[in-house]
TrEMBL record:
EC numbers: 2.4.1.1
GO function term, MF aspect, one: pyridoxal phosphate binding
Keywords: Allosteric enzyme, Carbohydrate metabolism, Glycosyltransferase, Pyridoxal phosphate, Transferase
Official protein name in the record: Alpha-1,4 glucan phosphorylase
Top-level taxon of origin: Eukaryota
Organism: Recurvomyces mirabilis
Reactions this protein catalyses: [(1->4)-alpha-D-glucosyl](n) + phosphate = [(1->4)-alpha-D-glucosyl](n-1) + alpha-D-glucose 1-phosphate
Keyword Glycosyltransferase annotated: yes
Record InterPro entries: Glycg_phsphrylas, Glyco_trans_35, Pyridoxal_P_attach_site
Task of the protein: Allosteric enzyme that catalyzes the rate-limiting step in glycogen catabolism, the phosphorolytic cleavage of glycogen to produce glucose-1-phosphate, and plays a central role in maintaining cellular and organismal glucose homeostasis.
């Protein structure tokens, strides 16, 4: 029900409508008002947490004003919108981002100082919104920033997890998982108790004839869980466009308690029902690139897809347009296969509820959806068992079978001579039990499928989706190389560097048009600029060194070469290669004379990242890093020549401190396994160089910055299969340098060798699937080259500055423009000059 104010009263509304602060005094008025009234605190009772809350609420009010206007404007313009469906949005902190995007941080710094607080301390009070695992979730967050900045009408849809990704504690060198209860105080979300959707599970399908005598199906008698919307404003940078991120929370359909049960004395049963419903949105699954087929996960996926689609369809129906116009109003992007159930769900809505014919419904569905693939790792490809789907979503299983039937008939007509193709491309895998292959359903139900970097997009066409390229032709498949938002990953994370660049380029336009960075190349020989650039890097290293001392009790010298590998712990990302390299370095140092040691480039090896709670091998690597650190950091022979630090609980806000402090960062996945990587882009943009394999976006980074400005090593993806084959037949020898490392582990140098045997054995005895041995020598040689290069600081500096200047391509703005043009077919809607 629309409830607008009558014409006669609107004048008064406009007169009294909320205004945005623009001055320091107005800002302080807002902060104090919120602290005194919203929080019911006073100047005698105001700590940093309260100062944070007051500041956040002041900025929240600002965002809300533009957010409301943006939604009105977009509704009025009635043009096509994009809906980004992602189970993960790794947003990090919101306050700093809001202040910078509305360009009022300076006002707030001055205001807070006046009130007795330092901005840095206030910002650090905020907990990360950590609704994601790693790259996939952070990409979604960068995309929201770019969509708003570029004025695209866009909504994100996700789940409002009560617990985000677990917090990682390191106890005795082992990872311990601690729950992340982030909702205690979250001023950035708005509960919409009036926006609810009832979602059905289980039940049965009944067939009936409609009035016109047509065979229809209806899904009924299921269990109902209610989805409640929570909205968060997403401000663009330097624009008034403020988009919406809608998170669904689950609750029992009958409210707090089932009163019938409650009143009849079944108090516990009534509470249990409520808790079961709330479980759906309770936790983020902490697996990165791994699927485990749990019923609750499937429930989450359907709950979220069904609520989001209901919402999207409801919005479309208000426009009273014909169904064939749906794809002209709505683009839905599937971030990986997690939201693939949206495909059969939209079919169900169109056929069962709206009585469309199959073919018409199907062409609407295909024109609406796009699918982004983020990995070729087999263990990450989602499959759900047919009996599970049958039980939970009986109507959807029928629809999936019908989609499959139509598809296989099409394939059979077009490839009559190919006997095996039907079994290979069928959505249903004929295993025991049968499985639904979600990636195939996503490909079949979408008009475009994209990979996330050039190599990866080529690989999906020749491996997992090879048959589909033959069936649909190559045009259905495309590449959109990932990007990062320069607002958070340059301006916010590295304000001094951003400012230095702005003084050289005559303003901050580069934050909206990152290709402008190329003009920095003109300053590569500018003495003053070089000096400042280097000073900023040093200051960022000092900040990380201070943190390392305070939090981990390890002293590191900021003049050392800072070598950083931060990302989820995973065998394919090969943190084990890195730590084996560190051990090799340590053994070499130990064997040197003091005179030779004096010539060595000092280095600090930083590691950071979470392991999925059930991923034993990844946890073992964390433990090994900590054990090596314990030995190396306390070895008097070594001193500052080598330090090893495991940074606990790596997350977005820590990345903002860590990334700008690197000299070299490691992106060393087995070639062909890392779809893109995005932290690689962040490190280079902040004046660090990379050591990496020819994998993912490393290849495109090399093309942009030039081969001289990156340290590549290792086997190429086209050779990986052969090498694995050789391992399998035992036709290879362990790299002798690596054998030395293993000998030292086995001799107990880093504690009881037994605890690392599975790790060593996976390489020595079990085929070395990730080719650690094959790449080891090349890795060590390249690290030596890095040491040599770093000694010539002027050369190093030239490389880093040149690289920064050449990173324009990797803005997520470029990326979003490509999606908008090639996949979504949407146009921006800039706010008008008059403010409307
Ligand atoms: C890929 F398949 C997955 C996954 O489940 N989670 C995840 O973070 C990552 N990813 C890739 O591993 C990265 O290479 C890539 O840059 C990122 O997705 C974004 O595309």
């Amino acid at each position: 029900v629309e409830a607008s104010i009558p014409e006669g009263q609107r004048e008064a509304w406009r007169k009294f409508s909320a205004k945005e602060f623009t001055t320091k005094d107005q800002f302080e008025t807002e902060v104090v008002k919120h602290i005194e009234t919203t929080l019911a605190r006073s100047l005698f009772n105001c700590d940093e947490a309260a100062a944070y809350a007051g500041t956040a609420l002041a900025f929240r009010d600002r965002l809300v004003i533009e957010w409301n206007k943006t939604q009105q404007r977009q509704t009025f313009a009635d043009q096509k919108r994009v809906y980004y469906l992602s189970l993960e949005f790794l947003m990090g902190r919101a306050l700093d981002n809001a202040m910078l995007n509305v360009q009022q941080k300076d006002v707030a710094i001055a205001g807070l100082e006046d009130l007795g607080f330092r901005m840095e301390d206030v910002i650090s009070q905020e907990r990360d919104a950590a609704l994601g695992n790693g790259g996939l979730g952070r990409l979604a967050a960068c995309f929201l920033d770019s969509l708003a900045t570029l004025n695209y009408p866009a909504w994100g849809y996700a789940l409002r997890y009560r617990y985000g990704i677990f917090r990682q504690e390191i106890v005795d060198g082992y990872q311990v998982e601690v729950p992340d209860y982030w909702l205690d105080f979250n001023p950035w979300e708005f509960p919409r108790h009036d926006v609810t959707v009832d979602i059905q599970f289980y039940g049965n399908v009944r067939k009936y004839m409609d009035d016109a005598g047509k065979q229809m199906s209806v899904w009924e008698n299921g269990e109902i869980v209610t989805a409640v919307a929570y909205d968060a404003p997403i401000p663009g940078y330097g624009t008034k466009t403020t988009n919406n991120l809608r998170l669904w929370s689950s609750k029992a359909s009958h409210g707090e308690f089932d009163f019938t049960k409650f009143n009849s004395g079944e108090y516990e049963a009534s509470v249990a029902d409520q808790q079961r419903a709330e479980t759906i949105s309770a936790v983020l699954y902490p697996n990165d690139s791994l699927e485990r087929g749990k019923e609750l996960r499937l429930k989450q996926q359907y709950f979220w897809c069904a609520a989001s689609l209901y919402d999207i369809v409801r919005r479309f129906k208000k426009s009273r347009k014909a169904w064939k116009d749906f794809p002209n109003q709505v683009a839905i992007q599937l971030n990986d296969t997690h939201p693939t159930l949206a495909i059969p769900e939209l079919m169900r809505i169109l056929i069962d509820n709206e009585s469309l014919e199959w073919d018409e419904a199907w062409s609407i569905v295909q024109a609406t959806f796009g699918y982004t693939n983020h990995t070729v790792l087999p263990e990450a490809l989602e499959k759900w068992s047919v009996p599970l789907i049958q039980h939970l979503l009986p109507r959807h299983l029928q629809i999936i079978y019908d989609i499959n039937l139509q598809f296989l008939q099409y394939v059979e007509r077009n490839f009559p001579k190919e006997r095996d193709i039907l079994g290979r491309v069928s959505i249903i895998e004929e295993s025991q039990p049968k499985m639904v292959r979600m990636a195939y359903l996503a490909v079949i139900g979408s008009h475009k499928v994209n990979g996330v970097a050039e190599l990866h997009s080529d690989l999906i066409k020749t491996t997992i989706f090879k048959d589909f390229v033959k069936i649909y032709g190559p045009d259905k498949f495309t590449n959109v190389t990932n990007g990062i938002t320069p607002r958070r990953w340059l301006h916010q994370a590295n304000p001094r560097l951003s400012e230095l660049i702005a003084t050289k380029l005559g303003g901050y336009d580069f934050l909206k048009d990152l290709n402008l960075l190329h003009k920095l190349e003109a300053f590569v020989d500018d003495k003053e600029f070089r000096k400042e650039f280097q000073e900023i890097k040093y200051a960022n290293k000092v900040r990380l060194a201070k943190y390392t001392k305070e939090v981990h009790g390890i002293s590191v010298n900021p003049s050392s070469l800072f070598d950083i590998q931060v990302k989820r712990m995973h065998e394919y990302k090969r943190q084990q290669l890195n730590i084996f390299g560190v051990i090799y370095r340590y053994l070499e140092l130990k064997a040197m004379s003091p005179a030779d040691r004096a010539k060595v480039q000092p280095r600090v090896s930083f590691f950071g990242g979470k392991a999925a709670p059930g991923y034993w091998m990844a946890k073992m690597v964390i433990h090994l890093v900590n054990q090596v650190g314990k030995v190396v950091n306390n070895d008097k022979d070594i001193g500052d020549l080598l330090k090893v630090v495991f940074l606990e609980d790596y997350n977005v806000s820590k990345a903002e401190m860590i990334v700008p402090a690197s000299d070299i960062s490691e992106h060393i996945s087995t070639a062909g396994t890392e779809a893109s990587g995005t932290s690689n882009m962040k490190f280079v943009l902040n004046g660090g160089l990379l050591i990496g394999t020819c994998d993912g976006a490393n290849i495109e980074i090399t093309r942009e910055v030039g081969e001289d400005n990156i340290f590549l090593f290792g086997n190429l993806s086209e050779d990986v299969e052969d090498l694995r084959h050789q391992h399998f037949y035992g036709e290879y020898e362990l790299e002798p340098m690596l054998k030395k490392v293993f000998d030292s582990i086995r001799s107990g140098t880093f504690g009881d060798a037994h605890q690392f045997s599975a790790l060593v054995d996976s390489i020595v005895d079990h085929g070395d699937y990730y080719l650690v041995s094959d790449d080891f020598k090349s890795y060590i040689d390249t690290q030596k080259l890095i040491d040599e290069t770093y000694k010539d600081q002027e050369t190093w500096l030239t490389k880093t500055i040149t690289s920064v200047a050449r990173m324009g391509f990797f803005s997520s703005d470029r990326c979003i423009d490509e999606y908008a043009e090639m996949i979504w077919n949407i146009e921006p809607l800039p706010p008008q000059q008059n403010g409307a």
